[in-house]
Amino acid sequence: MRSATATIKRCSWVSAADPLMLQYHDREWGVPVHDDRKHFEFLVLEAAQAGLSWAIVLKKREGYRRAFDGFDPEKVARYSVRRIEKLALNPEIIRNRMKIEAAVRNARTFLKIQEEFGSFDSYCWRFVDGQPKLNRWKIMRQIPATSVQSDAFSNDLKRRGFSFVGSTIVYAHMQAVGMVNDHLVDCFRYPEIQQRSGSIGGLDPLLQHGRDVQKNAKRVFS
User: Fold this and answer.
1) Domain spans of the chain?
2) Ramachandran class of 130: left when φ > 0, alpha when ψ lies in -120 to 50, beta otherwise
3) What is the mean pLDDT of residues 25-38?
4) pLDDT score recorded for residue 7
5) What is the mean pLDDT of residues 139-147?
């Protein structure tokens, strides 16, 4: 007899045989994020993924959490060359010095964005006008690797000094933190995320902050 987990309809990229991927899909992917440390966590992990699979990164996620002080950007921003060298020898993470150095530089720029906008969350949600973009994909090949919004977000991050933030990586970030809902329409999470994002019966109160941020951002950039 097949288990209930195996019979639930999910996005086709998820394997029921991979518990970490299953949990990530069922509990995190696409849920709107408004916590700066969580944003930073995803930025570090998504940069680490470049050229690799997300499954590899998920297996090392807790190692990254330990190595990068719980993804605290203030602590990571203070890492010295010696600390970077030590991380490059840490088997619990992906030992790519360029990616590690990028994480430290990005942490410093992350703090500057927080100072300018009040939070990184305030900054990033303005690229989708403060609320999630709801897509209606039926099959995986319909899902794009980038979007107009990820292009703009990526270009602005690069201009500010971020690295490992190409449009493809940034679009993956937008998917992860719920700025876009890219669950397939027949996935059981699609309506749950849609409901949570306020696309049914009004805006989720959690996202009202995003709307207010977007209005403030328009004033800042006008």
Assistant:
1) 20-221
2) left
3) 97
4) 78
5) 96
Q: Is the pLDDT of residue 201 over 80?
A: no
Residues that are catalytic? 24, 46, 54
Average per-residue pLDDT in the chain?
89
| DSSP collapsed to 3 states, the chain | CCCHHHHCCCCCCCCCCCHHHHHHHHHCCCCCCCCHHHHHHHHHHHHHHCCCCHHHHHHCHHHHHHHCHHHCHHHHCCCCHHHHHHHCCCCCCCCCHHHHHHHHHHHHHHHHHHHHHCCHHHHHHHHHCCCCEECCCCCHHHCCCCCHHHHHHHHHHHHHCCCCCCHHHHHHHHHHCCCEECCCCCCCHHHHHHHHCCCCCCCCHHHHHHHHHHHHHHHHHC
Query: In this structure, which CATH number among 3.40.50.1010, 3.40.718.10, 1.20.210.10, 1.10.340.30 belongs to the domain 20-221?
Result: 1.10.340.30
Q: Is the pLDDT of residue 166 over 50?
A: yes
For residue 159 the two structure tokens come to 């201009």
- Mean pLDDT on 199-204: 36
Amino acid in the structure at residue 136:
R
| Alpha-carbon gap, residue 61 to 64, rounded angstroms | 5
